[in-house]
Design goal:
There is one protein chain. The chain has 7 helices and 7 strands, in the order ααααββαββαβαββ. The protein is an alpha+beta fold. The strands form 2 sheets. The protein has a 5-stranded mixed β-sheet, covered by helices on one side. Strands 1-2 form a two-stranded antiparallel ribbon. About 3% of the residues have low confidence.
Length: 229
């Protein structure tokens, strides 16, 4: 069964490649209005033909609605390019050979990547709290300091061991209060993609919730790092 991250990566790559070919062949003029029209029609056709795995069906429908309601303001090409660049920047590993083709898949996440994230945020004066269990509504006082809270129990269960090279096997919630753009950027530098649940209300008061998934394989489009926006 296709994983969302892999299917979405294939989808945006196909869309951009076919747009580029349409421009090269002269079928589509090289301007933002024509590019948006092409990708809007391309998305609709992909839906009708059921060209991609059902895991990306909701995303395709969302893009179709955006294109119809916003026109060029939907910035379809830019969205595709941002996603493509974001996925290209996280670690990949070669998949199994099949029909003389080798598929690239998202690489496993190790505990050392997470501890690296903690260290980098601490250097940037974030208050990183990872030693307590978070299983109910709690208040975490930060005195205005940027804050990251991670449940100690959930963190332990998220990996298959306690060593630096232990692999992430379950999703992990990060509770965040502060500059999310900075957090997303720093996480990306450590090969981690964040997926938003909420940017404000969560079980940790005044903190939003973002999730890390094994192999960065979240069920939706990840937060896009500033460098790719």
């Amino acid at each position: 069964m296709a994983v969302y991250i892999e299917e979405l990566s294939k989808l945006v790559s196909d869309g951009l490649n076919e747009l580029a070919e349409a421009i090269r062949s002269g079928k589509t003029p090289n301007n933002p209005v024509s590019e948006t029209h092409f990708l809007s029609a391309w998305v609709t056709k992909a839906i009708k033909q059921q060209r991609y795995d059902h895991s990306v069906a909701t995303t395709l429908v969302s893009w179709q609605k955006q294109a119809r309601s916003q026109g060029t303001k939907a910035q379809m090409k830019q969205q595709f390019q941002q996603i493509q660049a974001t996925y290209a920047g996280v670690p990949r590993q070669k998949g199994d050979e099949a029909e003389q083709a080798v598929e690239e898949k998202a690489a496993d996440i190790t505990r050392s990547q997470l501890t690296g994230l903690y260290a980098s945020l601490t250097e940037k004066d974030w208050l990183v709290t990872t030693e307590y269990e978070v299983n109910r509504k709690v208040t975490h006082h930060t005195d205005g300091q940027a804050s990251l809270v991670v449940c100690a129990t959930q963190s332990k269960l998220a990996f298959d061991g306690d060593t630096a090279d232990s692999l992430m096997v379950k999703p992990l919630s990060l509770f965040v209060r502060g500059d999310v753009r900075e957090l997303v950027e720093v996480a990306y530098q450590h090969g981690l993609l964040l997926f938003k649940v909420t940017d404000y209300k969560s079980i940790v008061k005044y903190h939003g919730e973002y999730i890390l998934y094994p192999r960065n394989a979240g069920p939706s489009i990840p937060e896009i790092p500033v460098q790719h926006q």
